[in-house]
Amino acid sequence: MVLPFLTLYLTVDRRFSASTAGLALTVYGIAAIIIAPLAGRLSDHLGGLRIIKLSLFSSGSILFVFPFANSLTGIFALCGLWAIAAEAFRPPSMSIIGDLAGPSRRKAAFALSRLAINLCMSIGPVVGGFLAMHSFKLLFYADGATSILAGVLVAVLPWRALKQTDQAGTDNIDPARPRSASIASNEAVLALKYTDVLKDRRFIFFLIAMLPIELVFFQSLAAMPLFLVRGLHFTEASFGALLAINTVIIILVEVPLNSAMADWPHRSSLALGALLVGAGFGALVFVRGALGAAVTIVLWTFGEMILLPASSAFVSDIARREQSGAYMGLYTMGFSVALAIGPWLGAQMLDNFGSAAVWIGTFCCGCITALMVWLLPGARSGQGSA
Asked: What is the spatial distance between Cα 325 and Cα 287, in angstroms, rounded to a whole number?
């Protein structure tokens, strides 16, 4: 609830300038970049559930304190602390999903996770809007309370080791224990470092390949609304309705789509998804009305539904199980970097070079990512391949 309304809270309720409110989001983004790899590493050593519980309880507590910050320094500090607490949730949760789903069901499992996120993103801001009409402080209290409630549920629900068979044999997957302890207790496993992940050339190539299309995704926060509202004179309500198309399609289609594509090689899913996302945003160069805009959203939504579960599944497949959190930390950090850069870059290009340059650029980014993931080193058929 809070993040979508943070700029409104700072400008309307606290009377700060728009640029100051934007800087608060920048602080959040920078902190998210820093915590992603650290949270992944800690989840490997301490156990993913411990990090998840710590994230939920601490982020909820920070939100209860946030409305009492009066100085700009205090607000920026809390934005950074909140980002560290909240964003620490992502790498261990993705690692646990990949572990429990197994290679054959990872695409569908990550799609199901995204369905839950999109369903809540369609409800949370609506409820938050009603709360903000009465008091912005209610946003913080409600968001904080739900985070703490989620932490309580994670703490009290029974977790047990699950039998999972893959090409390497049968392992016990226990999300309640540190992964290094679940896999093995020998010193060689415990001595694995982040540098071992950075030496995985295929993974680093994949992270670089994903960056162009990640920059494209976040144009829905900057260049796209500016183009449609300021350039084509859509109302803000019309833009919100168009974005609802994305959420509805994801809720209805993403899980069955990824179940049907479960046996596709990763590089085929990744390349097709990147092309559809790039083409969807790129097609905005031809848009002059609401129907055309709706078609482009449908196009890049299908690309998103194919690309993101496939990319998460690919990372989970190629990661050493004892370092799965570290892999997911670096993977999610890529999106944080794109969030910090993408909206600013798109807005700058729109103002200085025009909308055509932005949308042609997004299509080129989609093509670059598609080509790079198709040429991933060591590509072959089967589990863990591109």
From this structure: 42
Q: How confident is the model at residue 138 (pLDDT cuts 50, 70, 90)?
A: very high
Structure tokens at 53: 């519980």
Helix (H, G, I), strand (E, B) or coil at 173: strand
Of the two residues 194 and 343, the one the predictor is more confident about is: 343
Whose CA is closest to 51, among 145, 217, 178? Answer: 178
Tokens of 35: 């915590």
Residue 80's pLDDT is 94
The model's pTM: 0.77
Rounded to the nearest 10 degrees, the angle between the axes of helix 324-353 and helix 355-374 is 150
Q: Which two tokens stand for residue 183?
A: 């896999």
Are 7 and 19 contacting, i.e. CB atoms less than 8 angstroms apart? no
What are the chain's domains? 2-160 (1.20.1250.20), 194-374 (1.20.1250.20)
Burial of 235 (0-12, 13-18, 19+ CB in 10 A): exposed
| Three-state secondary structure string covering 183-250 | HCCCHHHHCCCHHHHHCCHHHHHHHHHHHHHHHHHHHHHCHHHHHHHHHCCCCHHHHHHHHHHHHHHH
Residue 128, both tokens:
């938050």
With vertex at residue 351, the alpha carbon angle to CA 350 and CA 352, rounded to the nearest 5 degrees, is: 95
Check residue 289 and report its DSSP letter. Answer: S
Answer whether 41's CB lies under 8 Å from 330's CB.
no
Alpha-carbon span 138 to 385, nearest angstrom: 47
Report how far residue 51's alpha carbon sits from residue 200's, in angstroms, rounded to the nearest whole number: 25
Average pLDDT over every residue of 276-289: 96
Tell me the two tokens of residue 81: 């602390």
How many CB atoms within 10 Å of residue 57? Answer: 18
Distance CA 242, CA 238 (A): 6
Distance of CA 146 to the CA centre of its chain: 20
**Cβ within 8 Å of residue 149, ≥6 positions away:** none
**Which residue type sits at 377?**
P
Rg value, the chain, Cα = 21
190 — pLDDT class (breaks 50, 70, 90): very low
Ranges assigned E (strand) in the chain = 162-166, 169-173
Give dist(CA 125, CA 347) in Å, integer: 24
Q: Are strands 169-173 and 162-166 parallel, antiparallel or unpaired?
A: antiparallel
Ramachandran angles phi, psi of 172, nearest 5°: -90, 120
